[in-house]
From TrEMBL:
Ranges that cross the membrane: 33-52, 96-120, 132-152, 179-207, 228-250, 295-314
Main location: membrane
Annotated protein name in UniProt: Sugar ABC transporter permease
Similarity remark: Belongs to the binding-protein-dependent transport system permease family.
Membrane topology classification: Multi-pass membrane protein
Compartment(s) where it occurs, according to its Swiss-Prot or TrEMBL record: Cell membrane
Source organism of this protein record: Paenibacillus artemisiicola
InterPro entries per the UniProt record, alphabetical: ABC_transporter_permease, MetI-like, MetI-like_sf
Domain of life: Bacteria
Occurrences of domain ABC transmembrane type-1 (ranges): 92-310
Entries under PANTHER family matching the protein: ABC TRANSPORTER PERMEASE PROTEIN, LACTOSE TRANSPORT SYSTEM PERMEASE PROTEIN LACF
Amino acid sequence: MKTITQPRMAAEAAVRPRTAKAGWKRFWNNRTLLLMCAPAVLFFAIFAYLPMPGLYLAFIKYNYTDGIFKSPFVAFENFRFLVMTGDLWRLTFNTIAYNLAFIVLGNFLQIFVAILLNELRKKWFKKVSQTIMFLPFFISFVIVGLIAYNILSYDYGLLNVILKSLGADPVKTYSNPHIWPVIIIVTFLWQSTGYGSIVYFAAIMGLDSEVVEAAEIDGANALQRIRYIVLPWLKPTFIILLLFSLGGVLRGNFGLFYNLVGANNTSLYSTTDIIETYVFRSLMNNFNFSMGSAVSLYQSVFGFIVVITANWLVKKASPDNSLF
């Protein structure tokens, strides 16, 4: 036994320095790429991993006197309270419904715009169109909310001013929860479509022009080229973006909802209250850190399960297009 073990240990000792030397050499050869990745690694390390011990707040009844680690441990009491009050189901439904609308309508509209841009023949008109559609992405949600308020306000909003001048009754927009899903979705699409279409347009630019020219020579019209060449080419990009989007299906767009609706308009809670606005109220109005942390933990776990499940389904249907 001794005669077999000693040569093996000697061989491992000889290999170890060479392996370490090769690793440092590979590190040095890729130093530029690693340096470029460093800001992203630091960002996620500081803002995603270092705060993770704070999840312990979800399992305690936090108070300022005892602090985080001395407050009473209540296990899943915070989660049980959310389920019993019915808030969790309403928040989950609203958040998922809005995100599914954003994902489905957003991606299809972005693909549609990218294809239209690709079909334009005048380069100057294509550039002007891209610029005009891209501009809303740079408008702050604060400005968007201000514009919406000046249009929809009951007393001085542009909409009601026009209705009054026509002899019609003014609309109480900020007390009618049923019209806000349309307003929120339209606003989101208006602001994000131009920016999102860039990814699909870039993917179309990677399409081999000889394939398109061959289809034109064979007599394929524009609709046929789009259906049989462009759309299949965009399929992998669409699947990857869809999987990334599903990871945040339970993460609402707080800036959009807060600036359009606000976090304290109780008459609109039934259709506009999402997880982010609930957490904001828990922290800023009720100072309930434990409840806000419980909802955030539920949000993260649910999103993780959705991504794993969606990736598994994609892998079954099209293994080449899955994330892992």
